[in-house]
């Protein structure tokens, strides 16, 4: 039996994984952070955050944008008089959007992005988007979503953005495959080649690179999630009749092979044909991983809940790099979308959902792991206590999906340990 057949059989009998559910203080970025990778992906879109100066500073700091750059995002600042009700926020927003579109005629899709301040003053951005879309149609389409960090974690910004796109996707009755989730252009190109070699098509990606090239969707559309944090987008696609293909996520040689094989089986491709296409790139990925295995094998790793990538990352590090997950914390656990991943986790691993940061810090200190994956707010204090850390947000800014990126993914976890070894006296 082939590797893929063996793993597929194992996924069918997912064990019941006990979950520690935590509720308390959280330490996460807000959903506005997703703009940093989304604005690079949709080339003629613009993200206008309706928020405070703090929102503007967060975006500019996270993006590393210099003052003379002209990015595809900005912040419409809510001033004190808006908060006090001394000005009409809708009139001011209309004026800002008008000036923006006059200055930037290249914009074809405008997202009004809600924030904590806009939600506090109950500014109805859905009505504003509808009003402005009618005003600037057909040249510009205006949509809205919330990037507020009041109740969400930072990757949910992408989920909210893509879910806002689903209602405007064109309808189709043709059969096709839709890959859902923002991927680096190099990763998308690699997946296109592999899916074409498998004989799967037509293949479309959400988000698309252009606002006028949105992928069609209908009852004959099957979709693969490229990211584990797209629950709202998946629900919206299913409401339009599309069907999700259950699969592990494309992280590492194993995860990528399982992900592609799941698509191939859904389109009736026989197992021998799948092996022919995947054998060579999987072998290259395994060779790249072998370079990092001596440093990572046997090391203990602790995941704080942050990006929702934690479960597939833990699976990759445990099964392909020989690491030992001490605790896998994740902000939200979608059992259905992660069923194939949960089936591949090591027996007895602790899995926690939600966050109570003080309790998790206590467990982390008691475990004394070799590496901690966490947000920026926790990384520096933990480093000061002698623990090696990896910033979870870096895993969103870096191309990590697919066979060709498997070695780079392992390298992200190896580098903190290499740095620690060099600094050791």
Description of the molecule:
The strands form 3 sheets. The protein has a 6-stranded parallel β-sheet, with helices on both faces. The protein has helices spanning 3-11, 35-41, 53-63, 80-83, 89-103, 116-120, 125-136, 156-165, 185-197, 231-239, 252-266, 271-290, 293-296, 310-321, 339-342, 357-367, 376-384, 394-397, 406-423; strands at 19-23, 45-51, 73-77, 109-114, 141-146, 176-180, 203-206, 221-225, 243-244, 300-303, 324-330, 350-355, 371-374, 389-391. Helix 8 packs parallel to helix 10 and helix 12 (271-290) packs parallel to helix 19. The N and C termini lie far apart (49 Å). The chain has 19 helices and 14 strands. By secondary structure, the chain is an alpha/beta fold. Strand 11 (324-330), helix 15 (339-342) and strand 12 (350-355) form a beta-alpha-beta unit. It folds into 3 domains: 3-26 and 288-423, Rossmann fold; 31-152, 3-Layer(aba) Sandwich (Rossmann fold), CATH 3.40.50; 176-283, Rossmann fold (3-Layer(aba) Sandwich).
